[in-house]
Amino acid sequence: MDDPASSRLVLLRFLERVQERDLARTRRWIADEERREREQRQGEQARPPAPDWLLELGLNRDAAPAYVHAGGCWNAGGRSKGVDRSTALRALNEAVAACPHCRPDIELGVLD
Q1: What is the average pLDDT value for the chain, to the nearest integer?
Q2: What's the pLDDT at 6?
Q3: Distances (CA, A) of 6 to 3, 12, 17, 109
Q4: What is the pTM of this model?
Q5: Which residues 6+ apart lie within 8 Å of 93 measured at CB?
Q6: Where is the composition biased (Basic and acidic residues) (predicted)?
C-alpha cells in the first residue's frame, strides 16, 4: 500500500522543482530588464545635445524653408534640421517665417 507521507514528500519535491524553474525564469526576466534599462541610459547619455535652432525644410528639396524654430519647439516638423545661430538669423533675415509658437525671432533679437 502507498505510504501517504511518501506521496506527500514526492508532491512537495515536485512543487520545489516547479518553483525553482519559476524563480530562474523570473531572475532571467529581471536580468533582461536591467540590461534594457542600462542600454537605454547609455543611449540617452550618448545622444548628442539638441540643437539650439531648427530650420524646417519645405516639402521638396527645391522648396524654400518653411520656418525657423527654437531648438525645443514642440511644433517643429519632421523635416527640421539643426542649424547654428548665424544660419537661423540669416534665414529670418531672408524672409523665412519664424514659428509663431516658439518665436525664435524674439530670442534672436530679430523683430519685423
Answers
A1: 90
A2: 80
A3: 5, 10, 17, 87
A4: 0.59
A5: 110
A6: 30-44
CA distances 88 to 48, 53, 71, 77, Å, are: 20, 7, 11, 16
User: Using CA atoms, how far apart are residues 15 and 59, in angstroms rounded to an integer?
Assistant: 64
CB 109 within 8 Å of CB 88: no
Residues written for the chain: 112
Q: Which has the closest alpha carbon to 83: 65, 66, 67, 71? A: 71
What mean pLDDT comes out for the span 61-77? 87
Tens digit of each residue's pLDDT (9 = 90 or more) over 74-83: 988 788 899 9
- Calpha distance 85→97 (Å, rounded): 15
pLDDT at 1 over 70: no
